[in-house]
Amino acid sequence: MNRESDDEKNIYGDPFYYDAPFYRHGMPAEEYRREREYLNENIDIFIDGSYVPLWKQEKMRQRRKAMKGSMYERNR
Questions:
Q1: Spatial contact of 41 and 54, defined as CB atoms under 8 Å apart
Q2: Residue pLDDT, tens place only, 9-59
Q3: Contact between 29 and 8 (Cβ < 8 Å)
């Protein structure tokens, strides 16, 4: 069996997988590991309530970029 399959089994076998504050349906194992590492490195922002998962930060960046583009088009 390849490493990725073993890693995914380990991730999905984690009893807290679906309860993780960064979990989203269909999240690949590598993304889960990256998010878990980010959370562990930034536990202070989780505790103070300002934690935003990496995938959500990226989604917000994309929306801001799209909004800026549409505002540019309206002002032409």
A1: no
A2: 567 677 777 788 898 888 888 998 999 999 999 999 999 999 999 999 999
A3: yes
Which pLDDT score, from 0 to 100, does residue 69 have? 74
How many angstroms separate the most distant Cα atoms in the chain? Answer: 56
Global pTM exceeds 0.85: no
Q: Residue 39 carries which side chain, given as an amino acid letter?
A: L
In whole angstroms, what is the distance from residue 52 CA to residue 45 CA? 9
d(CA 11, CA 28): 9
Contact 13, 31 (CB under 8 A): no
